[in-house]
Amino acid sequence: RGGAAGDLDLAGRHVVVSAGGTREYLDPVRFLGNRSSGLQGYALARAAVARGAEVTLVSANVALPDPAGAKVVRVETTGQLRDAVVGAAAGADAVVMAAAPADFRPTDVSTSKIKKAGDGSAPSIGLQQNPDILHEISTERARPGTVVVGFAAETGDDTGSVLDLAREKLARKGCDLLVVNDVSGGAVFGSPDNQAVLLGADGSATEVPRGSKTALAHVIWDAVVRRLPAG
Ligand code: CTP
Ligand code: CA
Q: 101 and 150 in contact (C-beta within 8 Å)?
């Protein structure tokens, strides 16, 4: 961490953090979801409180205790996450999208529980794309100085390396910083540790050695603080 321990370098700042994974319902009891635990987002929220920020934590389906001193807004779907984050972002100095929003939702949601057909056939699920929250808050900033941070978990593929794909994603999303996890070696999901590269829209790349999600959270806030307009 850049500042001295105990620095209140986010005092007087309002930050928004999203955490967890959204669910998209097929019927009243079933959903499409993902494995995000919310640990990194919660670590970011706790770290920001410790540095003096007013923190709004938009939490999607997370089984973790509320961070002391943060305002927690609970959501389930990507649509609800979008509304909560866009609403809170209007008055924010920084927004960090650590949540894993479901990219798609079922085209039709059944109001009653879907039943099996007697003939052994299976239903098809039609999907439509969800709104891209990070793109929206990056390109339609209510306050020009708001610092916007995204996350990307990449494996690399035939079209590019992890960092190539991440650079493209940073440009496409329009955010200021992208926290990149290389997940080709296995799962970071639910792990207390994380390893990342912090890419800046200014072309910077900072390797963050393997360490706790709390340590990574402080590195991310260090980078945010450096980009905040004086206020
Ligand atoms: N994100 C978002 N809204 C979405 C999907 C993703 O705000 N509908 C945010 C995530 O919170 C994350 C960043 O965008 O901070 C990158 O997420 P990722 O899933 O890697 O991006 P996608 O654009 O969905 O790309 P991909 O096709 O690789 O999943
Ligand atoms: Ca995605």
A: no
